[in-house]
Specification:
42% helix, glycolysis, Hexokinase, domain 1, 5-stranded mixed sheet, alpha/beta, single chain, kinase, Nucleotidyltransferase, domain 5
């Protein structure tokens, strides 16, 4: 068993895919450098997008807000307020198909459809918090201009448009003359705010929003004085949430197989960090690693032949194998019973996920290193987490916690806490709508 594990380690080291070669301290410094360049408006793989959304002091009690959440295949609508116990109360919740999923949808139809979704709630509040989970440029008036959509969403006319402005116009065109205020934010920012609302009586030194599911992203709270690409903001006291767009980080140590796999993706050279850690690419990357291992004869020829026939694998297939390696799962059926195939496959997957955990620890640790928050163990940094890869991967979370504690707690004397917030995007959108 130990010999097999060592062979896998040597194989991955040969192709620069080993987690053991990654120095957290060195890579944290590189990540922080990219953060600082992005805040200055210099060329950087981290966009460091100002959101113009601040945490504020207190969420008002018993004040209603309409919340909208456009993400994936669903469009969610609800009313929300916070009671005297500081708890969010979600009312009149409805979920609809996201416009533009089934067919190309015009800008006019998109906004008219949303107005129809909102009709039961239009008298609920004058305030709207809109979580819009697609690449969007945040505007100083807290609106958001659409930059692009994923392949699944067919809304080409909406690209370049301000979402909030378009929705308010559609409301007036439909005869709703009551003026409303709207705040547009992305899902990572909403996650951060949702975490703050879920633990209102906890003392945290700061807040981070972290998503690791199909894709990945992080956001955090930055002092205005450090946002040098916004001179008007830089001279004002206070802070705002910065959307890092960390999936685009380009200084992570790629291996040979990473680079070969990247060339096979739809956007070579773009979002390389996301391709090393997120669920969308996990199956493809591990598949590339396994095929290279087959070329180097770490597995039997029979395994290689069977693996070639199964086609694309997913993060779900990988998890099925990790939980049930000797079952009838897709990957298990590739392994010969009287061979080390299953053990080799396990170690290959384990090592790639270990590397993903270490890279994620670098992303999150760099944020604390940049801000200097979390030095008091009684007031840790609150890291609110969302995403299927974070919560459902059999191996990932424990490995991440290990690297975070080893580096931040033991070496840097800095402290953090991972928290989960139910309905974080809805609640975060509510906070943004009420406070900004």
């Amino acid at each position: 068993m130990q010999k097999t594990k060592q062979e896998v380690k040597e194989f991955l080291k040969q192709y620069s895919m080993s987690y053991e070669e990654i120095d957290i301290e060195e890579n944290c410094k590189l990540f922080v450098e990219e953060m600082e360049k992005g805040l200055k408006g210099e060329a950087s793989s981290l966009q460091m997008i100002p959101t113009y959304i601040s945490l504020g002091e207190k969420v008002p009690f018993n004040e209603p807000v309409i919340v909208l959440d456009a993400g994936g295949t669903n469009f969610r609508v609800a009313g929300c307020y916070f009671d005297e116990e500081k708890g969010p109360i979600i009312e009149n919740y409805k979920s609809y198909p996201m416009p533009g999923v089934e067919r190309e949808t015009s800008k006019k139809e998109f906004f008219e459809t949303i107005v129809n979704f909102m009709k039961p709630l239009l008298d609920y509040s004058k305030k709207i918090g809109f979580c819009f989970s697609y690449p969007t440029e945040a505007l100083p008036n807290k609106d958001g201009k659409v930059l692009q959509f994923s392949k699944e969403i067919k809304l080409s006319e909406l690209i370049g448009e301000a979402v909030g402005e378009g929705l308010l116009k559609a409301l007036k065109d439909a005869g709703f003359s009551d003026d409303k205020e709207i705040v547009v934010l992305n899902d990572t920012v909403a996650t951060l705010l949702g975490g703050k609302a879920t633990y209102p009586d906890r003392l945290f030194s700061s807040y981070v929003g972290f998503i690791l599911g199909t894709g990945t992203n992080t956001c955090y709270v930055e002092q205005n004085k450090n946002i040098k690409k916004l001179p008007d903001i830089q001279n004002k006291l206070g802070s705002m949430i910065i959307n890092i767009e960390s999936g685009g980080y380009a200084k992570a140590p790629q291996g040979v197989i990473d680079k070969e796999f990247d060339l096979q993706t739809a956007n070579p050279g773009s979002y390389t960090f996301e391709k090393m850690i997120s669920g969308r690419y996990q199956g493809g990357l591990i598949s590339a690693v396994v095929k290279k291992a087959a070329e180097d004869k770490l597995v039997t020829k029979e395994f290689s032949d069977r693996f070639d026939k199964i086609g694309e694998i997913t993060a779900v297939d990988i998890n099925d194998f990790l939980y049930y390696p000797y079952s009838k799962s897709l990957l298990s059926t590739c392994c010969l019973e009287d061979s080390n195939d299953a053990i080799v496959l396990y170690h290959l997957i384990d090592t790639i996920i270990e590397r993903a955990a270490k890279l994620t620890a670098i992303n999150l640790s760099a944020i604390l290193s940049k801000t200097g928050d979390g030095t008091n163990p009684c007031k840790p940094v609150c890291i609110t987490c969302e995403g299927s890869t974070f919560y459902k991967s059999k191996l990932f979370k424990d490995k991440l916690v290990y690297y975070m504690k080893d580096y931040l707690n033991d070496k840097k004397d800095m402290y953090f806490e991972f928290v989960r917030a139910d309905n974080s995007t809805l609640i975060g959108a509510a906070i943004a709508g009420l406070m900004n």
